[in-house]
Specification:
- By secondary structure, this protein is an alpha/beta fold.
- It is 35% helix and 19% strand.
- It is built from five helices and seven strands, in the order E-H-E-H-E-H-E-H-E-H-E-E.
- The strands form two sheets. A five-stranded parallel beta sheet has the order 2-1-3-4-5, sandwiched between helices. A two-stranded antiparallel sheet has the order 6-7.
- Strand 3, helix 3 and strand 4 form a beta-alpha-beta unit.
- Helix 2 packs parallel to helix 3.
- It starts with 8 loop residues before the first strand and ends in a 19-residue tail after the last strand.
């Protein structure tokens, strides 16, 4: 059964107008009727407070505020209206170091550009059907960074399973 995304409010944050328009077109084709746009992380701060989106798609590399600073603000700032807001990082740079940095900043998921509509749809379905649990430690707040549960792991970083 296809998903009904029509009630979702999605914020696209990207300094490239063509990319914002492309994402808007894909999201509209998937049935998302409320798409809001911001040209960088700084503009997105106020937009998030005003609109309270259900999901953010953000580019990484923007000035004056990039995607990493934006997700850190959403997760850690007292003025953030929703520190649990799902955040999808979009970037043309998919190196492991960047993926890990985004994950450690609190990004919910990561998509490499160019964005493929089918991949975007599958990520949306995953966000709706299997939302990630949030974790708070002394050094991290954000979605659970584990992608799978390894029942054989017995190391010192093992979380209590109670």
């Amino acid at each position: 059964m296809p998903h009904d995304f029509s009630k979702m409010r999605v914020l696209i944050v990207d300094d490239n107008r063509f990319m914002r328009k492309t994402l808007d077109t894909i999201l509209s084709a998937l049935g998302i009727l409320q798409v809001i746009q911001a040209k960088n992380g700084e503009d997105a701060f106020d937009t998030i407070k005003e609109v309270k989106p259900d999901l953010v798609f953000s580019d990484w590399d923007m000035d004056p505020v990039d995607g990493i600073k934006l997700v850190e603000w959403i997760r850690k700032n007292k003025e953030s209206p929703d520190p649990y807001l799902p955040f999808m990082m979009l970037t043309a740079y998919g190196e492991k170091e960047r993926v890990l940095k985004a994950r450690d900043a609190g990004v919910t998921d990561f998509l490499s550009k160019p964005v493929v509509p089918r991949d975007l749809y599958l990520r949306l379905v995953q966000l709706v059907d299997k939302p990630r649990q949030f974790v708070r430690t002394d050094t991290y707040f954000g979605p659970d960074r584990r992608r799978r549960d390894d029942p054989d792991y017995k190391g010192p970083e093992r979380r209590d399973q109670t």
